[in-house]
């Protein structure tokens, strides 16, 4: 075709396209290319923990002058950078939309499967900084240990679930935390009570030293892998350019995390998990066999 014309001569390299995952085994592609005396280009997804761990274990030690690696972000950037565009002004407009306040509880009855889903959403105003963002993220990780150890393993109340959240700077400084807890319909009240109990325990006592150390180690492992990937650097540079912050601040994140104490996580729990201000939404099976009911 005109887009990809036939060419008898070809560039002398091998190529791998796919996930950086043990099932795809791109490390074997590198070994095969070297055995054939060819340089190799690898491009693919490397965002999941198992993919990053595999990359660090198998790919990184094999990287040399004959190995070129592109990630998803690199490929997208290459394409986008080739497109002609005028200079566009970047700005945000605050439309004044805000989450509800107080304790708001809603129920939805829909579907036939005998399962329920509990959603707790905590929101509020917040100022962003690297230090606050890291404390916020470690609070999420610590609470997820409690959710798994207590609600799932000890009490057997949930199938899975967890807590996720983010500090945002636009269109105004705010935070949002979502807690999703799939469970049996008859356990909904127990699940909500147990979750609020774990939140209050974190607010009163903070995490144990062992819990915080486990969270730190997991975070630092992910951080060390991210520091060796183009995607993490690209995201940090884009963020710094967009918000006018110091791109080198990322280099201090490990020092900040190592210095965090149980008291810091306790303070974050009291700051962001306000049990007087959250949305509680529960999905139940329909009472009449499938028709939605509010």
3D structure, described in words:
The protein has 294 residues and is of the alpha/beta class. It is built from nine helices and eight strands. The chain has helices at residues 26-35, 49-59, 72-81, 130-154, 188-205, 209-226, 230-243, 253-259, 262-272; strands spanning 14-17, 40-44, 67-71, 103-109, 116-125, 162-168, 174-183, 278-284. A five-stranded mixed sheet has the order 4-8-5-7-6. Strands 1-2-3 form a three-stranded parallel sheet. Strand 2, helix 2 (49-59) and strand 3 (67-71) form a beta-alpha-beta unit. It is globular. The N and C termini lie far apart (56 Å). The mean pLDDT is 87.
Structural class: alpha/beta
User: What is the share of helical residues?
Assistant: 40-55%
* Helix segment tally: 9
Please describe the biggest sheet, giving its number of strands, its sense, and whether it closes into a barrel. 5 strands, mixed
Précis, in short:
The chain has 294 residues and is α/β, with parallel strands linked by helices.
Features:
294 residues, alpha/beta, five-stranded mixed sheet, three-stranded parallel sheet, 42% helix, 19% strand
Mind sketching the topology for me?
Blueprint: E1 14-17, H1 26-35, E2 40-44, H2 49-59, E3 67-71, H3 72-81, E4 103-109, E5 116-125, H4 130-154, E6 162-168, E7 174-183, H5 188-205, H6 209-226, H7 230-243, H8 253-259, H9 262-272, E8 278-284
Parallel strand pairs: 1-2, 2-3, 4-8
Antiparallel strand pairs: 5-7, 5-8, 6-7
């Amino acid at each position: 075709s005109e887009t990809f014309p036939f060419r008898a001569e070809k560039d002398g390299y091998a190529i791998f396209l796919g996930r950086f995952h043990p099932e795809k085994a791109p490390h074997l592609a590198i070994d095969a290319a070297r055995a054939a005396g060819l340089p190799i280009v690898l491009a693919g997804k490397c965002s999941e923990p198992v993919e990053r761990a595999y990359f660090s274990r198998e790919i990184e030690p094999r990287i040399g002058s004959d190995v070129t690696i592109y990630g998803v972000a690199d490929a997208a950037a290459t394409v986008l950078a080739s497109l002609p565009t005028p200079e566009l002004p970047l700005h945000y407009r605050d439309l004044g939309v805000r989450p509800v306040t107080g304790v708001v509880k809603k129920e939805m009855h829909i579907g036939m499967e005998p399962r329920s889903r509990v959603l707790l959403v905590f929101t509020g105003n917040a100022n962003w900084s690297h230090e606050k963002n890291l404390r916020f993220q470690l609070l999420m990780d610590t609470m997820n240990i409690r959710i798994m150890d207590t609600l799932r393993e000890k009490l057997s109340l949930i199938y899975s679930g967890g807590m996720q959240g983010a500090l945002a700077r636009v269109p105004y400084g705010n935070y949002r935390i979502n807690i999703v807890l799939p469970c049996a319909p008859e356990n909904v009240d127990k699940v909500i009570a147990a979750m609020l109990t774990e939140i209050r325990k974190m607010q009163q006592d903070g995490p144990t030293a062992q819990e915080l150390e486990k969270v730190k180690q997991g975070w630092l492992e992910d951080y060390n892998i991210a520091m060796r990937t183009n995607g993490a650097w690209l995201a940090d540079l884009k963020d710094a350019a967009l918000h006018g912050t110091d791109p080198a601040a990322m280099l201090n994140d490990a020092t900040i995390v190592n210095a965090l104490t149980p008291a810091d996580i306790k303070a974050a729990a009291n700051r962001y998990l306000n049990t007087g201000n959250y949305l509680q939404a529960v999905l139940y099976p329909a009472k009449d066999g499938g028709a939605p009911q509010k």
